[in-house]
């Protein structure tokens, strides 16, 4: 059983007062021309009082209460107010099928009145019209209230689903950015750590340079992780501080990082107005190249990599990362979650582009086609780099 709230109690009291006031204020007109003894009038008033008090049970037994009051209303005027409230309650809180049966019961006095009095007076006709008008208003108000409550419930449900979807999308965005940012940093760290493991007799200068790269990569990975956690801990509705986002102009720096890790990377950047490319497009191109270099470093560490970015405002951009397939499994394969290409495909889809990847002869090719300016805005988490 639903727990009664303070608002429900206030509504019950309001309906109780309305029913009593309605019966009292309309008594003179309704009883005009009827000769009632004092005992009959007292009984009528007593029935009305009991009916008003019974309204506090309308939430528990609305249909039974409405049926009882409709029957009692055929003999007592003072029950009319409580009857209207009971009819409203059924229409507002019960299914349409139950409401129809209650409406049929409410309409029953009309035919019975015609059968009992073949010749109706003007006052009887006026009373009948008034009765049906009041009953219709009660049903109409109840049906309106029911539809309004259902609409509000549906809007709340939609808002809740939208909030859930927004939170899910935010988690996916964070997971995608976390993979793109940290996988690149950690793969650099893993390559140099592996080189030190397998070349303990390396020259001191090489060891020093590898140590510097490991330290810088680990430091940057920790910084990125700290900022990600900081964003997750922000109070709801508070935005994270803005950080510069990667663009097409950052591709040479990205390639130099990979070259510093010992990769052989050739960059071909042939883009018209590359400095003026939309921020979202430049960021997507950067992430594609970053993921391609990370995968090549994991699965084909000794293979040369060719990165080509070309196009312009008219034809869009084509991004390609190509590397030779490894002759065998690497001696110490860098572990991964296997979600990089899936997340990259989602990123490209959000940018209205198309992603292709797979074998092409003896090479593995990662290729994406992107419009110069995506139709949809592709948001970037403030902490991404």
From TrEMBL:
Reactions the enzyme catalyzes: ATP + protein L-histidine = ADP + protein N-phospho-L-histidine
Signal transduction histidine kinase subgroup 3 dimerisation and phosphoacceptor domain sequence ranges: 171-236
Keyword vocabulary terms for this entry: ATP-binding, Kinase, Membrane, Nucleotide-binding, Phosphoprotein, Transferase, Transmembrane, Transmembrane helix, Two-component regulatory system
One Pfam family this sequence matches: DUF7134
Cleaved signal peptide residues: none
Coiled-coil ranges (or none): none
CDD domains noted in UniProt: HATPase_UhpB-NarQ-NarX-like
GO molecular-function term, one example from the UniProt record: kinase activity
Main enzyme class: transferase
SUPFAM superfamilies: ATPase domain of HSP90 chaperone/DNA topoisomerase II/histidine kinase
EC number: 2.7.13.3
All copies of domain DUF7134, residue ranges: 11-148
InterPro entries: DUF7134, HATPase_C_sf, Sensor_HK_TwoCompSys, Sig_transdc_His_kin_sub3_dim/P
Transmembrane spans: 12-33, 39-57, 69-92, 124-144
Top-rank lineage group of the source organism: Bacteria
Name of the protein this chain belongs to: histidine kinase
């Amino acid at each position: 059983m639903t727990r009664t709230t303070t608002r429900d109690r206030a509504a019950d009291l309001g309906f109780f007062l309305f029913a009593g006031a309605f019966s009292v204020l309309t008594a003179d007109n309704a009883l005009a021309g009827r000769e009632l003894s004092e005992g009959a009038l007292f009984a009528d008033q007593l029935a009305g009082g009991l009916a008003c008090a019974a309204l506090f049970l309308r939430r528990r037994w609305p249909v039974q209460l409405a049926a009882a009051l409709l029957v009692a209303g055929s003999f007592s005027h003072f029950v009319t107010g409580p009857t209207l409230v009971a009819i409203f309650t059924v229409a507002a809180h019960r299914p349409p099928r139950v409401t129809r049966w209650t409406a049929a019961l409410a309409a029953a006095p009309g035919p019975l009145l015609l059968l009992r009095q073949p010749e109706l007076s003007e006052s009887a006709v006026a009373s009948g019209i008034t009765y049906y008008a009041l009953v219709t208003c009660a049903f109409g108000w109840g049906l309106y209230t029911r539809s309004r409550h259902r609409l509000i419930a549906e809007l709340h449900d939609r808002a809740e689903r939208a909030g859930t979807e927004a939170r899910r999308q935010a988690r996916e965005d964070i997971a995608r950015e976390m993979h793109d940012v940290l996988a690149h940093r950690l793969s650099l760290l893993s390559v140099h750590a592996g080189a030190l493991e397998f070349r303990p007799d390396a020259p001191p200068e090489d060891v020093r340079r590898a140590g510097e790269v490991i330290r810088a990569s680990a430091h940057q990975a920790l910084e990125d992780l700290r900022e990600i956690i900081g964003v997750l801990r922000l109070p709801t509705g508070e935005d994270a501080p803005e950080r510069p986002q990667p663009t097409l102009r950052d591709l040479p720096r990205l390639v130099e990082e990979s070259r510093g890790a010992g990769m052989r990377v050739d960059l071909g950047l042939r883009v018209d107005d590359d400095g003026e490319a939309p921020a979202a497009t430049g960021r997507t191109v950067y992430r594609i190249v970053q993921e391609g270099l990370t995968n090549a470093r994991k699965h084909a560490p000794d293979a040369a990599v060719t990165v080509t970015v070309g196009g312009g405002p008219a034809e869009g951009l084509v991004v390609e990362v190509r590397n030779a397939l490894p002759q065998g499994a690497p001696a110490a394969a860098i572990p991964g979650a296997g979600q990089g290409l899936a997340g990259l495909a989602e990123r490209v889809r959000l940018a209205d582009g198309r992603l292709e990847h797979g074998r092409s002869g003896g090479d593995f090719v990662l290729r994406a086609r992107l419009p110069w300016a995506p139709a949809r805005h592709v948001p970037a988490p403030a902490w991404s780099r």
